[in-house]
TrEMBL record:
Pfam families: DnaB (PF00772), DnaB_C (PF03796). The main replicative DNA helicase, it participates in initiation and elongation during chromosome replication. Travels ahead of the DNA replisome, separating dsDNA into templates for DNA synthesis. A processive ATP-dependent 5'-3' DNA helicase it has DNA-dependent ATPase activity. This is Replicative DNA helicase. It comes from Candidatus Sulfurimonas baltica. The lineage of its organism: Bacteria, Pseudomonadati, Campylobacterota, Epsilonproteobacteria, Campylobacterales. GO terms for biological process: DNA replication, synthesis of primer. It catalyses: ATP + H2O = ADP + phosphate + H(+).
Amino acid sequence: MQDNLYNLAFERSILSSIVFEPQQFDELSVALREDDFYLPAHQDIFKVMVKLLQKDHPIDEEFIKKELIKIKKFDEQVMLEILSANPISNTKAYVEEIKDKSLKRHLLTLTTEIKRVTVEEELSSAEVIDIVEKKLYEITQDNQTSDFKDSPKMTFDTMAYIKEMKERGNNILVGVDTGYHELNKMTTGFGKGDLVIIAARPAMGKTSFILNTVNSLIMQGKGVAFFSLEMPAEQLMLRLLSIQTSIPLQKLRVGDMNDDQWSSLNGAIERMNDAKLYVDDHGSININQLRSKLRKLKNKHPEIEIAVIDYLQIMSGVGTQDRHLQVSEMSRGLKMLARELNMPIVALSQLNRGLESRNDKRPMLSDIRESGSIEQDADIILFVYRDDVYLYKEEKEREKAAKADGKEFISEYVEKEEEDAEIIIGKQRNGPTGHVKLVFQKKLTRFVDAQPFAKGVETVYENVDTRSANINVSNDMVSMPAL
């Protein structure tokens, strides 16, 4: 292999520095990986060092030698070369050089893999591209891992996770903020690698529901990728502006606002100019295209913490197979992509109309269209339900029947500015099922928590609403006044 693909002197210096200054290894064990070293003997020594760190044993010559002898990998000549190398105090430049050469070796290996899958495998061009993009993303994200994790590695990582949770104290959030306090309590947030399905019948407000999550995240300075297959990006922006300003959506759409509302809108526009929101509003996209776009976007903008697809059944299928098989491929593909990118992917989904023939129209798992694969692949399934949607529909049907019979119709339905809403947790792989009460503000097409919650000594609302329209903005934070 060409000399520009490795530097054994640099590798020796790094390993020597660890032996003579073991306190550096906490940082170096995160920055470097076993296969970043070119020489197999160097890989073995680094692997043993990691093992000693996990066991909280000294990382010195004797312990390293003892572990290497156990696995029959001790090479006295290599060890002498490392011990005779000059240890370095500033390891950053050496680590960067080793990582750079490691990346080049991985890219060289990838070229061989591209040739193999292109020439030898009976795969379509789309499948070849997907394989290559996935491997390239793994390389650039330094996700080269072994096939199996052993018990010491798993216990070490698990204890690190538990300690991190302990340091957080009483923080209910483990994953990505849902934007709703009570839902956060039930789910601890959307977890990394989770596939989250948000399902509802038309007009229930599933897009409005997830946009509140999106707004909460971008106001915290976090990145969001949004695939809008149903509506253009400008309509999504109008809804987000309505959420932030408490200006009714209809007024925004026609520009019918007073001076205060215009001022509030200008402030929201300035905030959105700095938002890390990326929207793809092409009406037709398949799972291969989505994977490719999201990998590239995540690679370019690593601050993206969540991806949203609105909605699953509009996605195009690949090939000519039956629709339920296509949806199965989509849901499985999204789950695997969530794990690959280590972030939650939220997919909105339609429900079968059959539920409307039941007396209790609250959704169940079996109501999801093509539910078998979606139900299996999802980590969390949430249903958006508003009883007033059906009450209004029934009222209109009674009015129509009365007019057809020539009878006078007296309406018993009272339209509300704010309606009760439920988020039903139909499935949660790592938590309880149940339901969360919300309020739907019709003019703003916005869901908010049903009850205020305590935060410190003040009582505030998790979401901006008509009761809290003034937002104080600084470069560091977005805060709301106490209510």
